[in-house]
Amino acid sequence: MKIVMIGTGNAANVLGRKIMQSGHQIIQVVGRNAAHAETLSILLHAPAFGKFSDITGNADIYIIAVSDSALADIHNWLPARGEGITVHTAGAVSKLVLKKVAGSYGVLYPLQSLRSNSRVIPEIPFLIDADSPGTLQSIRSFASSLSGKVVHADDATRMKLHAGAVIVNNFPNYLYTLTQDFCAKENIDFSLLMPLLHETVNRLEEYPAGQMQTGPAVRNDPDTIARHLFLLQAYPALSALYAEISGSITRYYDRFKAD
Fold it and tell me: Are 132 and 138 contacting, i.e. CB atoms less than 8 angstroms apart?
């Protein structure tokens, strides 16, 4: 297929590389920042354009990989077109934002954290949606050439999965950030915790998370929790989260003990 990539950030970079690896041809890279478009175009072996009015009409799929805020007013900057299929890559934005700018449109949401500087492209499940069954089938065929995990998800379902993605990815990463700061200031080696992190994630492949909970909160050990909170007094953000999450864990599992 012939693809036009609209956007020059992390998603455009990784998806562009994946699309090339899968045997498709990227015929244009288009972005507001001409320098960024030129840089990405070199990587994707496609001509760069800094004006949306220069988008060709010869593509099969137009992939809009821009921020959610840019999508909100897309009708103000993207010329309408009737040819090809136009998709956006956002998890929390309705497909209907494309209704005024495309004859056939849909969603190609990569359910993955994408970083331009990643040398190895991770496994990427795709959530897809479209304005019609025919368009959906075309998007499914394209997405299936990129990934073995392609699922139809309407706006409501995609929003729920997007919320889940934020909770399981962004929230823990913030805890890792605070913990790395704590370890650095206390002169202890954060890398010693890495095997524990790997084991915790690996268990999710085989067991429900609820059965794998360990620690002082689940066993209702207030003495250990109090000692930890005393230790964390100099780290208010981490201390507050430790207390809040510990309390939530205890309350969650106390329900089952009561039964």
Answer: no
